[in-house]
Specification:
Length: 567
């Protein structure tokens, strides 16, 4: 028996300022759900947490657009996201919360105080954009201008969504207010800063240990930041929507000017949600959350932490979050796998809720089903480079690969089976090449999923079904059925073994098709994967329960050209 794990699946917190598009689904929601399902099937203890990012200027900008309060916007889109995740996408969260709770605020403030008391927080003056016309400081998302690095004209003042670079204040070209289009200028204001340069040795030690388990581009980008040297970064902003600064817990000589009109920057508080959500899960369910965060509480199980997000959140997760954890409590387990994806585009154009370039996650799943969407987004998942969704490619991949390869093999094999006593084939042996193909597929799938390599995992499944199709054709099963009953039954056993192996391996990704497949076989859906060395034995046992009287139907329906739209 392999050692069991306590696995934390930490999923990026989506802003509740609009409906979620498939860029979010491909970037972090789907990968996290595949991993969580796989780890549960392995028999591991899993805690998958996240929630709505209710703070920051994306919400206040949307509130201004709609003439509502930030809380009204957060409430509305949070409920829509909860419904989307639970009822449409069927994501397997253990807890999905939000950042505007008193519980999350308290944990955020505790982390801040820990940093302050350890000497990593200092006060400095910063220049922030100010609008005379609006008589206020304007947060980053209220400012728009031209990126000094790539020339993108829709960059905000702290980061360019086009090239992903973080921007120093004052470097944006031709900055204007997004709400009034009036010119803005920089004005001094006092804020709290984290001295990341002082924390860099701790961060470097963590990265050296953890980065061999990351994708190469993630490790290289992180190391590039460290080679340049980390600089202090403000963690407060002049804004009235966010986690309040706990002024009653701060020494008088460390209180900043106008502290009541400032809040923590959203990037500082959101990542703390992974910890605060774990604590909340324990509180609400009378569970020991510490067994997922402390080796001493893990009952001898190995701890493993997976983090899922888009590339624009890389620095906050590979460097800033581990550093905060180390300062808050040095015994806390640090992130293991940083499963960061690049961007999914739409026909070469970047998805953007604010610019209306979207494919709505709810609508596409309601039309095509979870499996088709999950299959295609995994097939093109932007794990190492940006990728692009197109309707034409979606239709071709579904028809030619999901259906033409995987579903076709399963349907043709089930359709040719004789309606007879399954006991005829149960004692027949598995051919060595079939056994080897299955065992290889299982071993590779487990390895790929442990390392969050989802495209490889899918390709591995498709290779097994391609092997099945080739085997079917080479053995000319239809000829054997007519001319050689004994040989037919021998080969039917091989086909069933491959089909059941596919059904099991499909579970983390194509959960609807996998469940339907086991229903067509008339056998119980496995709730746990057997140990790798016992996989063949499990398959043999399931073959004994197959009901050949059930009429087979295709798992998926072919798409026509007119289907390929949401309009």
């Amino acid at each position: 028996m392999s050692k069991k794990k306590n696995v934390l699946i930490a999923v990026a917190w989506p802003y509740v300022n609009g409906d979620l598009h498939i860029g979010h689904l491909a970037g972090y929601l789907l990968p996290a759900d595949i991993e969580a399902r796989f780890q549960r099937l392995q028999g591991n203890n899993v805690l998958m947490v996240s929630g709505s990012d209710c703070h920051g200027t994306p919400i206040t900008v949307q509130a201004d657009k709609e003439g509502k309060t930030p809380k009204e916007i957060a409430d509305y889109y949070h409920e829509r996201d909860v419904d989307l995740f639970l009822n449409t996408l069927k994501l397997s969260y253990d807890l999905y919360t939000r950042t505007d709770t008193a519980h999350h605020a308290k944990v955020t403030q505790d982390v801040f105080i820990a940093l302050l008391e350890a000497g990593y927080i200092f006060i400095d003056k910063d220049k922030q954009y100010y609008s005379d016309e609006e008589n206020r400081f304007l947060p980053d998302r209220y400012i728009e201008g031209t990126c000094p690095h790539c020339g993108f004209e829709g960059a905000r003042s702290d980061q360019c969504d086009n090239c992903g670079k973080l921007l120093d204040q004052g470097t944006l070209i031709n900055p204007v207010s997004k709400t009034t289009s009036s010119k803005v200028f920089l004005k001094e204001t006092q804020h709290y800063y984290v001295d990341w340069a002082k924390l860099q040795p701790k961060i470097e030690e963590y990265v050296k240990k953890a980065s061999p388990n990351w994708k190469n581009w993630i490790a290289q980008e992180t190391k590039g930041w460290l080679e340049e040297g980390l600089k202090p970064r403000p963690i407060t902003r002049d804004i009235d929507w966010g986690v309040e600064i706990p002024k009653e817990r701060i020494p008088k000589d460390m209180l900043i000017e106008n502290i009541d009109s400032k809040r923590f920057y959203v990037w500082f508080d959101a990542v703390i949600g992974y910890l605060s959500a774990s604590m909340l899960w324990g509180e609400q369910n009378n569970k020991n959350w510490q067994k997922f965060w402390y080796e001493e509480n893990a009952s001898g199980n190995e701890l493993k932490h997976y983090y899922f997000m888009g590339k624009d959140n890389l620095v906050f997760h590979t460097m800033f979050w581990p550093a905060k954890l180390m300062v808050y409590d040095e015994k806390l387990h640090l992130p293991d796998i940083q499963a960061i994806n690049m961007y999914l585009n739409f026909a070469g154009q970047q998805f953007s809720k604010s610019r209306g370039v979207v494919i709505d996650s709810k609508k596409i799943v309601e039309k095509f089903g979870n499996d088709m969407v999950r299959f295609y987004l995994t097939y093109i998942m932007p794990e190492k480079r940006d990728s692009s969704f197109t309707w034409e490619d979606f239709g071709q991949r579904i028809n030619n690969i999901l259906i033409g390869n995987l579903s076709n093999f399963i349907h043709r094999s089930l359709s040719i089976a004789k309606k007879s006593d399954i006991k005829v084939i149960t004692d027949l042996p598995l051919n060595e090449d079939v056994r080897q193909a299955i065992e290889t597929a299982v071993t590779k799938s487990v390895d790929y999923l442990e390392n969050a390599e989802f495209k490889n995992y899918l390709q591995n499944i498709l290779q097994l079904s391609a092997f099945g199709n080739k085997y079917f054709d080479e053995k000319q099963i239809w000829v054997l059925k007519k001319n050689d009953t004994n040989a037919f039954y021998q080969e039917l056993k091989q086909l069933y073994a491959i089909i059941i192996a596919l059904g099991i391996l499909m579970q983390p990704l194509l959960f609807e098709g996998s469940q339907q497949l086991f229903q067509l076989l008339g056998v119980e859906v496995p709730d746990k994967w057997p140990e790798q060395e016992a996989f063949i034995t499990k398959i043999e046992d399931l073959i004994k329960d197959i009901d050949t009287s059930i009429k087979p139907v295709p798992l998926y329906k072919k798409l026509n050209e007119e289907d390929l739209t949401l309009e």
